[in-house]
């Protein structure tokens, strides 16, 4: 199996910096609340100093969404949506220890993070332009077809595991109670993305080791090294 971005995505978004990791041994009964709380505190501090829309990480994704032909305030990247909810409610709902951890780190650093159940992915996961024939399963259970040329996470079976790039994941590969192996993807496009993605992947790796005693395989991808084998 592998993860990659298509040639067309790299051509159109050369500033992209993806961080990818694979971790096994994930369980639903892990105690990760202390780590989650620490990153939530960092997010609260950043939001006290500026709004989520002023963060360079979010601004870069707003520009990318505009280039995709989407209204940035109608379709927001996942990290901006989390920050808006966190600012309004003061916390995020608990879903699963791994999801809660990734959400908290996404809040703290402002970069979208996706976690996929590897057992639900067919052969590979590629960020690519949709043909419109792929199938996306919403959390409501409704099946949808992405718009042609929409950026999606696709596998060999024609499943769209995320729509509008970093906007919304599919229910089909979401982390559940029975998930054991996860593929975690973080993507950024702002000026300091290279350094921030390094910090983000290190933070996730350290937390995975502390909570699950799991040391993930990690990689920072680029146009010259675009593929992560797992």
Commentary on this structure:
There is one protein chain. The chain has 230 residues and is of the alpha+beta class. Helices cover 35% and strands 22% of the residues. It has helices at 7-12, 33-49, 56-67, 78-89, 97-109, 193-212, and strands at 2-5, 17-23, 113-117, 124-129, 136-137, 143-144, 151-154, 160-163, 168-169, 182-188, 217-220, 227-229. The chain has a 6-stranded mixed sheet with strand order 9-8-7-4-1-12. The protein has a 4-stranded antiparallel sheet with strand order 3-10-2-11. It has a two-stranded antiparallel ribbon with strand order 5-6. β8 (160-163) and β9 (168-169) form a beta hairpin. The longest helix has 20 residues, at 193-212. It is globular, with a radius of gyration of 16 Å. The termini are close together.
Helix amount? 25-40%
Strand content: 15-25%
- Strand order, main sheet: write it out: 9-8-7-4-1-12
Helix-strand pattern, N to C? EHEHHHHEEEEEEEEHEE
Mean pLDDT: 97
Low-confidence stretches: none
Question: What are the key terms here?
Answer:
globular, 12 strands, four-stranded antiparallel sheet, alpha+beta, about 230 residues, six-stranded mixed sheet
SSE topology:
Blueprint: E1 2-5, H1 7-12, E2 17-23, H2 33-49, H3 56-67, H4 78-89, H5 97-109, E3 113-117, E4 124-129, E5 136-137, E6 143-144, E7 151-154, E8 160-163, E9 168-169, E10 182-188, H6 193-212, E11 217-220, E12 227-229
Parallel strand pairs: 1-4
Antiparallel strand pairs: 1-12, 2-10, 2-11, 3-10, 4-7, 5-6, 7-8, 8-9
Helix pairs in contact: 2-5, 5-6
